[in-house]
Design a protein that fits this description.
about 35% helix, alpha/beta, 15 strands
């Protein structure tokens, strides 16, 4: 069956992780994505991380199903070519700081004159307005300012996660959602619009329950914060860990009985910290008495929300992951499929990530440039 975004043309001017990942998701559901990169250097991520056959594994994992055109947007001719592309495009994604595209004469207000139906998505750290709009930042900064990092801490203070949480949740996912909503709006009204994605504000998507707590004068302990023994992580004899998330009473009851401690059942949500700390000590002692594999087999037949903390290599062998085909091998690396499953369509991960400028002749020929004109653009360092 034809994919839902077939015949949709997207210009991807973004770099590194948030924008390119979003554009790839849209490409795998049928959109034609033209990745526009700087001549010679290209996307920074082409030179980042481990290399597979001379290509960055990070780049390969984020740029499937795209075409590549190099374009010098600082040159007048390069700006003219982008405007020609915009005339025939539906969506433009960029990740420059606010004001940069305007300096080139390529901001939203200018490009909507070229194509009023254009959906222009700007992915930035702090959005297009406000006191931080032009401020530089990275994933860790957005998590810090949003309050997210303060809720990812141990006794030693906030941790540095090994994952790009604000980049993906605040950047990639909000970009995909924003573009799809704008496309629905355009389908009803014919209007394009600016989609302003702030990774800082997107990080707040994790915090609705914590924000709700702030409105209560004396909020009770957060049941999913690790305060209570029924929702915590425990070490095993061999230095591995198990997650215990017996949030509901029925699961806590099954867990307590399985460990032969029915006296725990009535104190599941006892608010006294000393009671919870004592309970944690008792559970820790039990878990540390046996190795990881013992507990994995022990809890396997049960349904009480107790699961092993797996290493990434163990995740690959997980039967649930294999059943869902969420991870697959292509281009010499392990890739992620879009995790949502549909009854009538499947994402297409067919075309490999493009070499820098690989589709230059094809794209420019479609715009009406002759072979000699394309050669001249190369010699003039426009492409």
């Amino acid at each position: 069956m034809p994919l839902p975004l077939k015949n949709l043309k997207i210009l991807d001017l973004s770099r590194l992780l948030p924008g390119p990942y979003a554009a790839m998701i849209l490409a795998e559901f049928g959109a034609e994505v033209i990745k526009i990169e700087e001549p010679v250097t290209g996307d920074y991520i082409r030179r980042t991380g481990p290399a597979i056959n001379g290509e960055s594994a990070f780049f390969l994992s984020l740029n499937r199903n795209k075409k590549s055109l190099t374009l010098n947007l600082k040159s007048r001719k390069g700006q003219e070519i982008l405007r020609k592309l915009v005339q025939k495009s539906d969506v433009l994604i960029e990740g420059f700081r606010p004001g940069v595209m305007e300096q080139f004469g390529l901001g939203y207000e200018s490009l909507k004159e070229v194509n009023p139906r254009l959906i222009y998505c700007a992915v930035t750290g702090y959005g297009q307005r406000g006191p931080y709009a032009r401020k530089a930042g990275h994933d860790l900064n957005y998590m810090a300012r949003s309050g997210l990092l303060d809720n990812l801490k141990t006794d030693g203070g906030p941790i540095v996660p090994r994952l790009q949480i604000a980049d993906v949740t605040g950047g990639t996912l909000q970009t995909v959602i924003g573009i799809l909503l704008a496309l629905l709006h355009r389908g009803r009204t014919g209007e394009g619009q600016l989609v302003d994605v702030s990774m800082f504000e997107g990080a707040l998507m994790f915090l609705p329950l914590l924000l709700a707590n702030l409105g209560v004068q004396t909020p009770p302990p957060n049941p999913v914060s690790g305060y209570f023994a029924c929702y915590a992580v425990y070490p095993t004899q061999d230095g591995r860990f198990f997650s215990v998330a017996c949030y509901e009473e029925k699961f806590w009851r099954e867990f307590s009985r399985a460990l032969a401690h029915e006296e725990w059942i009535p104190i599941q949500y006892e608010k006294d910290a000393s009671v919870q700390n004592q309970l944690k000590k008792e559970i820790t002692k039990i878990f540390k008495n046996k190795p990881f594999l013992y507990w994995e087999n022990f809890f396997k037949p049960m349904n009480c929300c107790v699961e092993p903390v797996h290493h990434l290599k163990e995740v690959l062998a997980d039967p649930q992951i294999r059943a869902g085909r969420t991870i697959f091998q292509k281009n010499g690396i392990l890739n992620l499929n879009f995790p949502v499953k549909f009854s009538n369509m499947t994402a297409a991960a067919e075309a490999p990530p493009p070499r820098l400028g690989e589709h230059m002749a094809e794209i420019l020929s479609e715009l009406g440039f002759s072979r000699s004109e394309i050669e001249r653009l190369k010699s003039d360092h426009v492409i």
